[in-house]
Amino acid sequence: MKRTLALGGIAAGLLASAAVAAPAAQADSVPAVNLAETNFAAKQVAAFWYGQNKANLINATPYGVETTLATKHVSTGGASADDKPGVVGSSGDQKAATGTSKNINLPRTTGKVFFLGADHKPHWCSATSVQGYYKNLVATAGHCVYDTVSNKATLDKWVFIPGYYQGKTPWGIYVGKTAYTHYDFDNYEDGDRDYAFVTVYNGVQVTGVAVEKVKNWVDNKVFETKAEAEKARHDLEFKTTGWAGEIVPVKDDQHLATDKKESYKKFVPYDDAFVTFSEISSQNKLEELIRETSTQWTNKTHTAGIVITRISRDEYGNNLADYYWSQDKKTFYVKYDNGFYKATFWLLYDLDFKLKGKIVDIALKDVGTLGSNVGGQGLAYNQKVGNPVFVFGYPSGSHPDGNYAFTGKTLKWAYGKTFKAAAPAVKAEELVGVKSSFTGEGSLGSSWLYRYSNTKRLGYLNGVTIGVSDTDGNKRIDTSVSPYFDGETLAVYKVAEKMWSGKIV
């Protein structure tokens, strides 16, 4: 079954098949479903990233899915053009860079995309702004948008922040609206088509953050079941602009458990556990309990049990009796077969649940389109393999030898000529590679720019990093790989770049 790709798990239109050029009418009819259609919905996304002093942004970690590849270079076959080479213009004119400049002016178009991974934790990839009709387009690796781990449609709470640095958002935050990828990646996770173009709403900046405790009707309420608490949390998230908190268990020592899954063991005096002295003091019963170390039983009203533990002579104490009770009647001590033991008794009591957290209210202002603020790279396709490219991204993680060369905090660049490569592990036989020491996770989605102008800080996007590799086995990353951008890439781009997204405030 075809999995449509859209941010936040909401179905959206894709290019049905990039193998066949889509006519304009068909492209215009591709449905687009919004992630944040209203000011309220946008605030909910922003609250997640900006709440608690931007904790989720600052604590996000580089995405590490399908990062380090056992790349095998190929000398024949591999990537090849499917038509004549061409380019789509950027937001400015540029001249080819020579690659000899000692000082490279980094592009303003590059930034990080943030999202929740399949582990429900915040992560990021590299990405770049691309020129489009509505100046609202972002390019990154396909698996920095599509959830290849849990096979859900997309990664959740997806936003792009150009120029991001340690919580700072100099040109605003851009909430993703709709993502477009190739049919073969959408259906088969084909590494040769591991790229995505994402339309984003106008950027927003936060003008104020107000935080208050959860309203009393929730904060003071105890829910009998976790399902009831989850429903209350859902209602709270739906009715407010943002919620930062958790569901916490609350011990109810007044009621015995009716559901073992939502219960806890409470150690009690033996008579409260409905145990009689004769049930545990006989020779046969002691032998049975000591062999099993614990036992439990259930009747219509309760679940109770005994735990037998071997103890030291010191813990048994100076009592000379063969057995005795603790003063609170919760523990029974016994000598048996030259050993010392204690028996404790428990009942299952009920666990209730409550919400603990805060409401985060975010005030936003519109800062305009992505392209108006940072510009947009052009697109190059069917280019000759062997052309030089600049690679811009946020490499992070260690080399295989354990050396950490990059922090992922600042934008870095690499330069080299492309060559043919393959990575069967990700179903990729038609890749291009470039020599680069960029390490793993953070470099996913890095932009490969052909004919990059150091003056204009613009060029033509000709690839995105989908993995890195140590190709010579010296335990140092030396290669980055990208899908080869051809006419099918252009077809996906053409559908995406004509889609309007608009404002969220």
What do you see in this structure?
The protein is of the alpha+beta class and 505 residues long. The protein is built from ten helices and 26 strands. It has helices at 24-28, 39-59, 183-188, 216-219, 226-239, 277-281, 283-292, 313-316, 370-374, 487-497; strands at 61-62, 72-73, 86-88, 110-116, 122-130, 137-141, 156-162, 174-181, 195-200, 203-213, 243-256, 263-268, 294-298, 303-311, 323-325, 331-336, 339-368, 378-381, 388-393, 412-417, 419-423, 428-435, 447-453, 458-464, 467-469, 479-483. Strands 10, 11, 12, 13, 14, 15, 16 and 17 form an eight-stranded antiparallel β-sheet that branches. Strands 4-5-6-9-8-7 form a six-stranded antiparallel β-barrel. The chain has a six-stranded mixed β-sheet with strand order 3-18-24-23-19-20, covered by helices on one side. The chain starts with 23 loop residues before the first helix and ends in an 8-residue tail after the last helix. The model is unreliable at 1-33 and 94-101 (pLDDT under 50).
